[in-house]
Amino acid sequence: MILSFRRWFPLFLVSGLGLFFELAVIRWMSAEVRLFSYFKNLPLLAAFLGLAIGFAVVGKGRDYRPTFAPLLGLFVALVLAVGRVASARGLAYPSGGDEFLWYTAPFSYWLSLALFLSVVLVFFLLTVFLFIPLGQATGEEMARHAPVPAYIANILASLAGVWVFSFLSYLQSPPVIWFGLGLLGFGYYLYDRRALSRQTITLFAAALLALVIFGQGAIWSPYQRLEVTDLYLARQSDGQPLKVGYTLNVQQVFYQRAVDLSPQFLAEVKSEIPEMEDMAFSYNLPYRLRPQGSQVLIVGAGMGNDAAAALRNGAAHVDAVEIDPAILALGRKLHPELPYSDSRVATIVDDARSFFIKSSEHYDVVAFGLLDSHTLLSGLSSVRLDSFVYTLESFRQVREHLKDDGVAVVTFAASAPWIEERLGRMLVQVFGADQVYVHTGAVGTTFVAGRLAPDQLTRAQLTHWQPNPTADVPLTTDDWPYLYLRLRQVPAAYGQALLLIGVVCLVLVARSFPEALRPNWHFWLLGAAFLLIEFKSVTELALLFGTTWLVNSLAISGVLMMALAANLIVLRVPRLDLRLIYAFLFASLALTFFFPLNLLAGWMPVIRAVFSMVLLSLPLFFAGMIFSESLRRAGETARPLASNLSGSVVGGMLEYGSLWWGIKSLYVIAAIVYVGALAASRAKSK
Question: Cα–Cα distance between 136 and 59 in angstroms, integer?
Fold first, then answer.
């Protein structure tokens, strides 16, 4: 038993560390260098490419494992330096008006493009180099065992890596804990393989010390980096600052405020800070449209401004839904009016769409509390945390939760007029043109949908919303939920970045790692298609159960569990007919493509969860069987896995096709790639 443990533990350890470091690097880099909050898939693809190169150089003579420590030190230094410069100057992004990102710098288009491409390329390459030692170490350990059992151990370890990191996220632990635990594990692995040096230990310690020093004051929720500071506004009489609440920054930029807008405080500062009256009017507006004693739902409740406004205006009960538990906790502790301590308020940690599905309650007011996102769901999706909240299907669910005379209120602070146009048109389609009104106030543009009397419109300063007949703005749906994209297209900056990365990496790999340019095309195509299906599964599970960190972890675990089940079957069956498995694979792709997921909305939660997990993961199960059987026939692990991971990089790039054709199109693209994989397999067997 002990000998068996000693034999398998190094493989298990280094395999788990590979996925653990993937999650840690993506999470930390996207929080410090804000650009990667919107491009989380780029560091993911860089990690895949680094692991692929690491597998490709197994047994080629050079040991890259000692380079991990200096590369990590350089990575930490650059992330901290670039992150702080970028947060002070603004985000350099050449949008050209085709996409909206928060707080972009006022640079010229060409300067923004140069800075954007430079940052993307530098960090992509650095992440590639960082993961080469991890890939080589994993490949070396897998080479000591038979292919399929080694791959099973790799999957089990990856599951462990996901859930260890998820547990640390649940605890809201800081990056020094993530990286400290990861470096402890990798340090032990190097020690066990007699490759641990004093220089490595020193560099590990220096990197962790930097994380401690530069991470002071930050709160790490399961989603993002938070910082809270006192909010002061200047008095008109003497210009002296007066504390009125707190400011919450996310990813080092402004996100929201917790402000004292109580009548008592406003009476004290009315002549000194008149803008607070305007702010109070905007927050009070939704809850003055219905009589006192109303039932209120707030999604995106944040630190509590909307809940406080609802209570000030006599709400009998408030359901305050907020996806981020850390923000909710800050509001409970810091909001000057203490709305979350009131017995009339129920706080709910959940995604808005998930709550719409679970709840059977009906409300007088459903308010979207400046619900906007500064980050993607995960590296496995181009969907932002709030993407599924602003779709036609979502607004239809809101209408179903309203009482007959209820109102839906959407306040949004985006400066892009086409986003406001899109929101208005969706509300018109759901509620009717004669029931959508608008108010532009101190906190943003407020849309109100529902039946209102003329005197209410006057008191609330509301006017009928009119669409712009010349605006070309596609509406967002659950299949195309990209609120922040102006049109159905891949923004030019995406294509420019991918082209630059592709050319530079091709030249670099050709010169330094030529082994990686000779893939097994069957495994390469399997990797590309598999990642497309994985992207699709993670995104659709987020739609069904919410864009929460837990759902994301469960989705990744579901993918790994399907791969594990496929491997166990391959291990028990002497030989599988690949043509038959391919037939099952294509049938499962067709099933998942045509199955209407909205049919699951009324099912019991447990049954809905089990059925949807099985349904959406079914293609991954058959793809896993094809991969494992092919791996067994190959008789080795290093080259097939190198090919598979490098193919995944291309699959990640193809995922951007969903920005054009919608999320379901990924099934079609994956099916085409799998046809190529089948052809490559048959060509190789001849």
Answer: 9
- Residue 251 · residue 34 · CB < 8 Å: yes
Q: Structure tokens of 457?
A: 């419109």
pTM of the model: 0.89
Distance CA 318, CA 344 (A): 6
Q: Which of 272, 313, 506 is nearest to 409 (CA)?
A: 313
User: In what order do the strands lie in the sheet containing 317-322?
Assistant: 345-349, 317-322, 295-299, 363-368, 402-412, 444-449, 436-441, 463-464
Contact 318, 345 (CB under 8 A): yes
Most distant CA atoms of the chain, gap in Å: 88
SS3 breakdown of the chain: % helix, strand, coil, rounded to 5? 60, 10, 25
- Computed on alpha carbons and rounded to an integer, the radius of gyration of the chain in Å comes to 26
Encoded tokens for 103:
């707080």
Find residue 363's DSSP bridge partners: 402
C-alpha 588/C-alpha 529 separation (Å) is: 14
- Cα–Cα dist 600/603, whole Å: 5
Calpha distance 49→259 (Å, rounded): 47
SS3 41: helix
In this structure, which amino acid lies at residue 367?
A
Q: How far apart are CA 83 and CA 28, in angstroms?
A: 11
Helix residue spans in 401-520 (DSSP H): 417-431, 454-459, 492-512
Q: Lowest-pLDDT range, 97-101, 129-133, 423-427?
A: 97-101
- Helix H, strand E, coil C: the string for 317-341 is EEEEEECCHHHHHHHHHHCCCCHHH
Q: What is the pLDDT of residues 541-566, one digit of tens each?
A: 777 766 666 677 777 777 788 888 88
Please report how the helices 275-284 and 305-312 are oriented relative to each other, as an axis angle in degrees rounded to 10: 80
- In sequence order, the β-bridge partners of residue 411 are 446
Cα 608–Cα 586–Cα 498 angle in degrees, nearest 5 = 90
